[in-house]
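User: My advisor, Dr. K., asked me to get a structural model of this assembly before our group meeting. I'm new to this, so sorry if the format is off. These are the inputs:
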Amino acid sequence: TQLLEQSPQFLSIQEGENLTVYCNSSSVFSSLQWYRQEPGEGPVLLVTVVTGGEVKKLKRLTFQFGDARKDSSLHITAAQPGDTGLYLCAGEYAGNMLTFGGGTRLMVKP
Amino acid sequence: NAGVTQTPKFQVLKTGQSMTLQCAQDMNHEYMSWYRQDPGMGLRLIHYSVGAGITDQGEVPNGYNVSRSTTEDFPLRLLSAAPSQTSVYFCASRPLVNSPLHFGNGTRLTVT
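Assistant: The format is fine. Below is the predicted structure of the whole assembly, which you can bring to the meeting.
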């Protein structure tokens, strides 16, 4: 059983559509990170959220940390083909362990 | 900076064989870790180290050994490979806890 549940697992949308990816847990995390992974490469950090209720924006990407620090969401506005990839959330717990969700594979069609 | 370097990129083993996956980082990071990635499972933590001479188990440590004799290197050993260990393995480092991980490009391991 994974500590972090991501949904949906797969998402295929048309260019220009909006989407939201969810990352949920029953555990509290000291921080939560979002990564994006391209085929054949390691994940690369997009953002870290630390404070409950925190919202961070990265161009068309909006990240939110839940008030209780148990969940997070990633919203993409007007998705583009370049947004295609695997999105992973990861929560910091037990002082020095980072646990990952199962990932959301996004495909944006032109 | 090379960042995190993993070797080899690909490896095929027969059941029962042993091998070591190499990981080196040149960023002077204290924290290093090994993850395995399987379809639909995200990344699962195998072992981690918070500094030279210190290692600890992650979420799925069985079948794997690690050591940390230097800050730069963190090898992962499979003593007797099993088909269940077929996966993509990622090494990652970071300067301290609550900071982002820097990943290598992975080692794709197949055990037949």
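One thing worth pointing out at the meeting: The mean pLDDT of chain B is 95.

User: Perfect, thanks a lot.
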